[in-house]
Write a structure and sequence with these properties.
Layout: E1 18-23, E2 29-34, E3 37-41, E4 44-49, H1 54-61, E5 64-70, E6 77-88, H2 92-107, E7 118-130, H3 144-156, H4 161-176, E8 180-187, E9 192-199, E10 209-211, H5 215-223, E11 227-229, E12 244-248, E13 251-255, E14 269-277, E15 280-289, H6 297-324, E16 351-356, E17 361-364, E18 367-370, H7 372-388, E19 392-394, H8 395-399, H9 412-427, E20 431-437, E21 440-445, E22 449-454
Parallel strand pairs: 16-22
Antiparallel strand pairs: 1-2, 1-5, 3-4, 4-7, 5-6, 6-7, 8-9, 8-15, 9-10, 11-14, 12-13, 14-15, 16-17, 17-18, 19-21, 20-21
């Protein structure tokens, strides 16, 4: 039976450069190496366009070409007969190839030379196996289909977002043998992604943020497409921490207002896949490894499916939360003796908590805790706890509070509460959020607190 591109995908990872033959309009042949032959679908591949050379000139004059590729493990060779269709200079395919080429270039010491100008898309007319000695293929790390089956069953059983996030990352480790992973959600109004769960890192990096369009994660989010790198490259590296200067009324100095993104110091393989909730980007599932070539096309397919399952589960949980949320007339909270929401007695040292209205950042003492939507939520809980003696709250009252300026996204509040709960557990055990039921939680203040609200500076 004729071979399809699907059958030889392992040959298209750029481990061994392909060899491309073209001919000029007068029939003069030309043979050259090609940096990347990229899988598009069962009938198409894309070749990296990097240079205005003889190969490029020939393809534009005569759109027929032949490419020889080799399996990196078995040494099996295949000859592809191609017809040139078009060149893409932006979009998901281009960005995916650009990221992959950056890794190949870094691995081969050609970072200053390998720059993608375009993704040349070809129709595959025929694939021919070239006779020759081959080696047996290595055993796979795991059965990806069985792993995905287990993933689907466990994800479908999650009863809330926190359980969904934790189960997803746990299953990546136990079923897919992926030890380092993080799950980031999309803050659409802020054009950023924030880490809500991670596994394999110390510290966890919960609350760290990445702009859409930056690095492997940000590009995957912007293009809504998987981005995979098989070799270390500085082109897509992230700064582990960003130091910000802040000078506010009543406080001046250098303040750390960014949470360092977790990650391996020597990340050699990276894969980011979008999590879609219907047509909306919900987040990114990101995995990495210290090994070269850790993630192949099959891993990419499996994690794209896993990301889709997470997105469906998130959408279902959000809709379920809406239908069972607290009624508008429900009692939102109850008074707690002492007016500190369960705080310890006055003998305990008072904790100073400072809020900056400019970006809703919250500091405990001089240590940065959280900012943005989660910071605004925490500040509301602190004020209501200290002023009204409340400890019990509902998701609905937060969602309806105009002062919080929550984005009009159904699952945003639940996700921000999970983020806040985990950030408090890691950095400020004096404060805690405990879930008490569907759409209800308890805010615990275990020591007396002194609140200071720093207003935003006027006039810019």
């Amino acid at each position: 039976m004729p071979l399809s591109v699907d059958a030889i995908r392992e040959c298209l990872d750029g481990v061994i450069p392909g060899v491309m033959a073209t001919s000029a309009a007068d029939g003069t042949p030309n043979v050259s190496n090609i940096s990347q032959v990229h899988y598009v679908d069962a009938a198409h591949v894309a070749l990296s366009f990097q240079f205005f050379n003889k190969t490029r000139e020939n393809v534009l004059a005569n759109p027929r070409a032949t490419v020889l590729v080799m399996h990196p493990d078995t040494a099996a060779r295949y000859r592809l007969s191609l017809r040139y269709l078009r060149t893409e200079t932006e979009g998901p395919l281009f960005e995916s190839m650009k990221a992959r080429l950056a890794g190949i270039a870094s691995h081969t010491g050609m970072s200053g030379v390998f720059r993608l100008r375009g993704a040349d898309v070809y129709r595959v007319l025929d694939i021919e196996a070239v006779p020759g000695a081959t080696s047996p293929a290595p055993m796979p790390r795991c059965n990806l289909l069985a792993a995905l089956h287990a993933f689907a069953v466990e994800v479908a059983a999650a009863t809330d977002l926190a359980a969904l996030f934790d189960r997803s990352l746990s299953l990546l480790a136990s079923r897919f043998d992926i030890r380092h992973a993080m799950l980031l959600l999309h803050d659409e109004p802020g054009a950023r992604l924030y880490t809500v769960a991670s596994r394999g890192y110390e510290p966890s990096g919960v609350g760290s943020e990445i702009p859409v369009g930056q690095g492997v994660i940000g590009v995957a989010a912007r293009e809504r497409t998987p981005i995979r790198i098989t070799h270390m490259t500085s082109d897509y590296a992230y700064g582990r921490a960003i130091r910000a200067s802040a000078e506010q009324s009543g406080y001046a100095g250098m303040l750390e207002t960014e949470i360092p993104l977790p990650g391996l110091a020597e990340s050699r393989s990276q894969l980011a896949v979008p999590i879609m909730a219907g047509r909306r980007l919900a987040g990114i599932l990101y995995v990495e490894s210290a090994e070269d070539l850790r993630f192949g096309y099959d891993d990419e397919d499996a994690l794209v499916a896993a990301g889709a399952l997470i997105g469906v589960a998130m959408k279902g949980l959000a809709e379920s939360a809406d239908s069972h949320d607290e009624a508008p007339h429900a009692v939102a909270g109850a008074a707690v003796p002492g007016g500190t929401g369960g705080a310890a007695g006055a003998a305990d040292a008072t904790v100073a908590v400072r809020h900056y209205a400019a970006d809703d950042s919250v500091f405990v003492g001089d240590d940065y805790l959280i900012k943005g939507v989660a910071g605004a939520i925490l500040w509301k809980l602190l004020r209501d706890s200290t002023r009204a003696g409340r400890s019990e709250f509902t998701n609905r009252e937060l969602r309806l509070d105009p002062a919080l300026r929550l984005p009009d996204v159904t699952d945003n509040l639940e996700a921000r509460l999970i983020l806040l709960q985990r950030r408090l557990a890691e950095r400020c055990p004096v404060l805690a959020i405990e879930k008490t039921g569907r759409g209800r939680f308890r805010f615990c203040v275990r020591r007396p607190v002194e609140l200071e609200d720093v207003p935003a500076a006027r006039g810019g």
